[in-house]
Amino acid sequence: MSGELERAGAALAAESARMAGLGWMRGTSGNLSVTLGRAPLRLAVTASGLDKGELTASDVVVVDEAGAAVPDQPNPDQRPSAEAGLHARIAAVAGAGAVVHVHMLSAVVAGQRWPEGVVLRDLEMLKGLGRRDDDVMTVPVVPNSQDMRVLGDAFEASFDAATPAVVVARHGVYVWGRDLVQARHRTECLDWLFRFTLAANGIQEGVA
């Protein structure tokens, strides 16, 4: 394993463990990625089917712009998530250095309640997403699909460069940033914003 890939794998494992501890990656669900290069596009993505709280630096797969594993993998028996294709699409369209996909309950409930987009306004925590505290930010909600090309098209159609997140209806949320730390911070802030907005509207998580 190259030094760059090993460092990426260690960072992905650490962040996965952190997010699993928050209940955002239950079972083997969810996946994280970091962009390794852009010409051609290459991402390191957490391997599929593994407990995200117990990953090691070697539990990572390098994928191309379509989310397919590239030849000459250090661990060729490991598979990337089927959702790696959307990670690659986000990296290409948004210029993301890292993408977080988690099954955060607040995001799923908010998407169920506001399928046309979750409006967040006049909250200090918006600064954590690169917006002003008096901003209005609408997080898009797109229909779920098992076809990553369809899901990628829906993401791209809803994309706003100033909004680093998209909710996939009845599934989860994708959040991105320049690196894994920023993507994690944005995910944490977004969870708080969703929780507040749900509570302010008298909606309990789990009761859409």
From TrEMBL:
Reaction(s) catalysed by this chain's protein: 5-(methylsulfanyl)-D-ribulose 1-phosphate = 5-methylsulfanyl-2,3-dioxopentyl phosphate + H2O
Names of the cofactor(s): Zn(2+)
GO CC terms, sorted: cytoplasm
Positions annotated to bind Zn(2+): H101, H103
InterPro entries named in the record: Aldolase_II/adducin_N (IPR001303), Aldolase_II/adducin_N_sf (IPR036409), MethylthioRu-1-P_deHdtase_MtnB (IPR017714)
GO biological process, one term: L-methionine salvage from methylthioadenosine
Signal peptide per UniProt: none
Residue ranges annotated for the Class II aldolase/adducin N-terminal domain, each copy included: 10-198
UniProt GO MF annotations: methylthioribulose 1-phosphate dehydratase activity; zinc ion binding
Keywords tagged on the record: Amino-acid biosynthesis, Lyase, Metal-binding, Methionine biosynthesis, Zinc
Pathway named in the protein's UniProt entry: Amino-acid biosynthesis; L-methionine biosynthesis via salvage pathway; L-methionine from S-methyl-5-thio-alpha-D-ribose 1-phosphate: step 2/6
Xref: SMART domains: Aldolase_II
EC number annotated for this UniProt entry: 4.2.1.109
Annotated cofactor note: Binds 1 zinc ion per subunit.
Stated family: Belongs to the aldolase class II family. MtnB subfamily.
Function description: Catalyzes the dehydration of methylthioribulose-1-phosphate (MTRu-1-P) into 2,3-diketo-5-methylthiopentyl-1-phosphate (DK-MTP-1-P).
Stated name of the protein: Methylthioribulose-1-phosphate dehydratase
